[in-house]
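Quick start: what a row looks like.
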Amino acid sequence: MDVRIQHCRLRVVRQGGWSWGPDRQKLVDFASSALPRLISEALSGILPAEGDNHVSKLRVHLKGNKATIAAIDSSNPAQLKSALHDSARRQLVAQLGAELPLPAEPDARDQTSADEASPMPAEPADAVALVERWRSDGSLPQRLELFTTTALAGWLDLWLKGTGSQGERNPVDAAALRRAARSLLRIIPRYGDDTAGVLRRRLHLVAELRFHTRGSMNADDVEETLDLLLPEPGKPRALDDEQNTIERTHVPGALEAGHESESKSDTSNRYEGAERADPDPPTVTTGVDTHVASALPFLLLGILQRTGYLECLSATLESRQASELAPVFAAALALILLPEKSRGVLLDNDERVIVETFSSLASLPAPQAFDDYDWRVGDAMSAADANLHAELVRGHTPGTPLFVERFARGWMIFDTEGMFPVAYAYDVERLDACLRAFNSNALLLSTAAIDNAISGYLAEARQLFATDSLPGREDHWRTIDGARGLWTGRDRPISCAEIARFQASAEAAEQFTSSCIASPLAQQLRPDSPLFTSTALAAGVGLADIALTLWADREFAHPSLARNRMQDLGARVRIDAEQIRVSLAVGRRYLDLRDNGFLADVDGIPWLSNRRLIFTGI
């Protein structure tokens, strides 16, 4: 069958990370050559064999690993075809089915007997692709350290359900898989002996197995291998015929005894005493053409996409089987970014339009919807937070101090260069985990941030710090700046350059945290709600990126600076089945945003399905 494509528009979009790699043009040239051929081959296997068929427009979204795609020779796209062909075929069948009489798709149940073990599906889930990417860039251990037990269990479950594929490789024998797993355990970090530590090792081991094995893994064999070598605390340990080999594999003593030791930083049950709501699913709308008084939430989406936050959010929701709640997260993000005149739960008409349009909902979510989000997703949001933390660690300038401010029932950590909110820590153990990645940078702490737990941590960790809080009876501090009233550890003084950042950082941190706590979102949620703290992190990172990019050369940049200057930038928003178009008035702000890349098209927004966000000027 001959397939003629008269016009093909190709867009290559990078999702996550800060770079296109060593050869950007090579990736674009390869995609231009191979992807149209792939789509043509998929169409030839779908369209009826008899007669001429004319189709006016088709849209296909294909996801792939950048490093893998760039390495494939454009003259031999077999590897690309094995990874993306099934996805392209499904999308084409869905779009062509309404226009053409297509042949019936074969029933998968006729191809596989019920006695066969479940193979891993053809198209990787977002969580699988993300874990593979983190393993490749060496950041997987750092990220997993900030995953709570809830997040770890959900992401691991995606693997064990068979998410991911290794193309047309031959299957790996179960015995060979176990031998490989035993060898790989030697290079995987310990992570700890508690439940969270074991789950981190299990998830890390699966990622290493997928990379090192030369064949496709069977989901059932992977699960049996994990249960054999890394049993979860409290569960009986499996045995096999190679018991003498197993005994040489180290397993923590607490696990061998079947003793379950919960992590101190695990917060999976923080809402156990609350009454759970059960609201109706949110209703997503299209066909919108309206004016919004503030386009600020839309401006942050490109930043969150580039950091990989949106992709990680999508995978997190999938891991909790709550993908339909993505519009609720969007509504929460819009609520925390509303102009600061908004105080309280009741919103005026302009504010309701901003939230409903940004989240693509027919009406503002009821408060119970946010509570339901916390119950169904909850601490799994730590995966999305860990992604932001890792990206900000990567962009951190060594030697720049961090600022710690009280937030909700814990602490918000800021990078004083741009005042990016690096992480939210709900206890001292998590605070220490967040700070370790910064190689003992100096800490600046506000008076509100200091309590007995922090004082003990500073003394035990011998952390270099400065604070404007008066020392307690057990604190061995000394004054370093009488005019500012600053104190530090007696035996570890802090430099004058780091002291000079204190006042500006304290004011910026207080402004941002106060605006979040006073937002309409905070009035509807518990103070330590994961939805609230994660949304605050995402909003702060987006705002800080705008401020640092646009104004750092002439003033101290911080999130509230961008919020104050951009919150009244209105726009006309039109939403249809294919895209969402945000039209901004052409002026100084529009030109600054456009020239610095903040108005680039955005794909992969979880609550917009396959629709693309496009910015234009009017």
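That is the whole record. Residues 70-77, 102-124, 163-168, 241-275 have pLDDT under 50 and may be disordered. The chain is about 45% helix and 10% strand.
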